[in-house]
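User: Here's a structure from my thesis project, written as structure tokens. My advisor, Dr. K., wants to see whether a designed sequence matches the one we expressed. Can you design one independently, without my sequence as a hint?
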């Protein structure tokens, strides 16, 4: 069992940066790939990126590639999403998730979810 809690969301101007954190509880954290999704108002939840168990492999959606970076810290049981050059279309609720395989882009392939943190990018 893994419990996830996101933090670090907020309001930022376009072009700015935010760093989201996802704190994980449970001894099994190290056995999971971790992912980030986001959901904009009125839209479906979409894949942002993921990182493998060892932190050596990452995958990103084309919309964030080159701007967002996912890292994980095994000692802290945490995953991070560094977001740079933010755009208004990055606005949404950001969710941390844990799954078996890295680079999976659909929600059904992940086992555990956090409650989400709101990110709002103003123009």
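Assistant: Designed independently from the structure alone:
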């Amino acid at each position: 069992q893994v419990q996830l809690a996101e933090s670090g969301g907020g309001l930022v101007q376009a072009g700015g940066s935010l760093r989201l954190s996802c704190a994980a509880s449970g001894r099994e954290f190290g056995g999971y790939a971790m992912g980030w999704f986001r959901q904009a108002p009125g839209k479906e939840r979409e894949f942002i990126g993921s990182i493998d168990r060892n932190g050596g492999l990452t995958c990103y959606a084309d919309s964030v590639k080159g701007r967002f970076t996912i890292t994980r810290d095994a000692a802290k049981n945490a995953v991070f999403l560094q977001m740079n050059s933010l755009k208004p279309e990055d606005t949404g609720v950001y969710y941390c998730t844990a799954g078996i395989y890295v680079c999976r882009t659909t929600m059904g392939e992940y086992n555990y979810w956090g409650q989400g943190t709101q990110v709002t990018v103003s123009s």
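When you compare it with your expressed construct, this may help: The chain is about 0% helix and 50% strand.
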